[in-house]
Structure formats: C-alpha cells, structure tokens
Amino acid sequence: MISLEAGPRPLVMGVVNVTPDSFSDGGEWFEPEAAIAHGRALLAAGADVLDIGGESTRPGAERPSVEEELRRVLPVVRELAADGAVVSIDTMRAAVAAAAVEAGAAIVNDVSGGLADGEMAGLVAAAGTPFVVMHWRGHSADMQSRAVYDDVVADVCADLADRVEVLQGQGIRRQNLIVDPGFGFAKTAEHNWTLLRRLDEVIALGLPVLVGTSRKTFLGRLGVPEGSEPRPPSERDLSTAVTSFHAARHGAWAVRVHDVASTVGALDVADALRESP
Ligand SMILES: Nc1nc2ncc(COP(=O)(O)O)nc2c(=O)[nH]1
C-alpha cells in the first residue's frame, strides 16, 4: 500500500500514456507490449508509481469510447500490477477506474476530480483507494477559455478545498485524498509559473500534493523568442526536472513525469542539499 504521508522526498510517478495523441508522447506507447515495456523501464529508472492513461487530455483531443479506453489500459494495468508495480489509473470515467482497480490499480487519478463522471466518487469511496483530485474547469476542447482568475492560486486552492469537501461528503475518506493544481489545465503559462512560485499555498491545504508540470508547453516556451514555436516536448525534460527539484523543496507528495531518470537525479540533489536532520 502506498503511503500518502509526504516524505522528505516526493514519490516519482512515471507516465505511461497508452494513447495515439497525447501532447507529450502521443503514440509512442500505444501498443500494449510497448506500454508495458515502457512501464518496466520507468520502474528500472526509479519510478515509485506508474500512471497509466488511455485518454489524451491535450486541448481539443477527441474522447475515445469507454470500450476503447478500457481496451487500451487494462492489459497494461494488469501486467504491470502483476509485476508488483504501484499503478495509478489516469481516467475521468468510473467504469474505467472500476475495471482498472479490479485489474490491480492502487490509485485513481482523475484530472476532473470527480466532476466528469457522477459515478466516480461512489466508486472510489467503495474501492477505498487513494484519489487524485486535480483542479479542472472542463474538458480540454474549450478549457483554456476558462483560464480566468482573480488570484489563480487563491482560486485554485478554494476550488480544490470545495471539491475535497464535496468528495468527503460523498464518502471518500480525507486520508485518501491527494490534490493537484492542474498545471496547463485552464491555466496560462503565467498562471502555471504563479502556481509554482506559490506552491507553499497549495501545500498549506494540508493534503498530499501531486505536481504535474512534465513537458507542458509553458516549459517549452522558456528561452524561446516571443512568437516562435515552443521547444518540442522531448526537449522539456531538463526544465521538468528542475520543477521536480522545486516541488521537492516545497514538500510535494509526488511529481508526475515522463522522463523519470532526470527527475530522480534532481531529487537526489534536493536530498543532498537538505539540512541533515
Ligand atoms: N494528476 C494529473 N494527471 C494528469 N494527467 C494528464 C496530464 C497531461 O497529459 P500528459 O499525460 O501527456 O502529461 N497532466 C496531468 C496532471 O498534471 N496531473
């Protein structure tokens, strides 16, 4: 069973997207065998958890059917859980979460925090699994139109606190809840940087915090002239690792990354710099 106590070092959640169109690595691991092999490679590189997703959340992505999402993720969840890996299922659908837990998933990671499927909270409450509640303002198709805040950090924290309240009222135990500010979801680049700068305020909610900045576009725009194309996702792992270092220094519970090795290295540096107890 995974600990939800924030340790001195964040857990590393390795991303396995079994999708043809994820922004960050779309199509690379679409076949089950490739996805399983990739998951094993991430474990070998030091991942503590593997986050398996069958639906791309990139802006404008077409939603697969439930049957298609199940077809994509179940063989991968089953095989990697059978290896003994701690697997989280990245889904907004209760039916997919239920089947994945049945197949061995230990965590449900829902980018909608239970908003996209009214059955999700009951399923998670009954399953008793940890539940990642990410800050979300609607499906990717038009989410950026809702990237409007008075104070993005205060608003995101208030929204997350409200969701946590509602989910507890729907039977999910507080000690099973993890929050995530949802970098890149209904957020501009400036919103993402502000959330990172003031990460302490998210941590102050008093729940484990998952940070998912990996390969997101705001990192691709670093050092790129205004108006030019951002660097491709494959060139964003170094800056991702530095955000993992930052997350570690602020006490995040876990970081969700595509490239595990570079983040493990960054967390090793954070460990070395930590005042010895
Ligand atoms: N909890 C959580 N889950 C997520 N799932 C997908 C993506 C974006 O897609 P990707 O898998 O291609 O990174 N980002 C997050 C995130 O930031 N937090």
UniProtKB/TrEMBL annotation:
Family matches, as InterPro entries: DHP_synth-like, DHP_synth_dom, Dihydropteroate_synth-like_sf, Pterin-binding_dom
UniProt GO MF annotations: dihydropteroate synthase activity; metal ion binding
UniProt-listed SUPFAM superfamilies: Dihydropteroate synthetase-like (SSF51717)
Residue stretches making up the Pterin-binding domain: 10-268
Keywords: Folate biosynthesis, Magnesium, Metal-binding, Transferase
Residues making up the signal peptide according to the UniProt record: none
Keyword Iron-sulfur: no
Cofactor(s) it depends on: Mg(2+)
Reactions catalysed according to its record: (7,8-dihydropterin-6-yl)methyl diphosphate + 4-aminobenzoate = 7,8-dihydropteroate + diphosphate
GO BP term (any one): tetrahydrofolate biosynthetic process
Keyword Magnesium belongs to the record: yes
Tree of life domain: Bacteria
Pathway terms, separated by semicolons: Cofactor biosynthesis; tetrahydrofolate biosynthesis; 7,8-dihydrofolate from 2-amino-4-hydroxy-6-hydroxymethyl-7,8-dihydropteridine diphosphate and 4-aminobenzoate: step 1/2
UniProt EC number: 2.5.1.15
GO annotation, cellular component aspect: cytosol
NCBIfam families per UniProt: DHPS (TIGR01496)
Function of the protein: Catalyzes the condensation of para-aminobenzoate (pABA) with 6-hydroxymethyl-7,8-dihydropterin diphosphate (DHPt-PP) to form 7,8-dihydropteroate (H2Pte), the immediate precursor of folate derivatives.
Record-stated family: Belongs to the DHPS family.
Name listed for the protein in its UniProt record: Dihydropteroate synthase
Organism for this UniProt entry: Knoellia aerolata DSM 18566
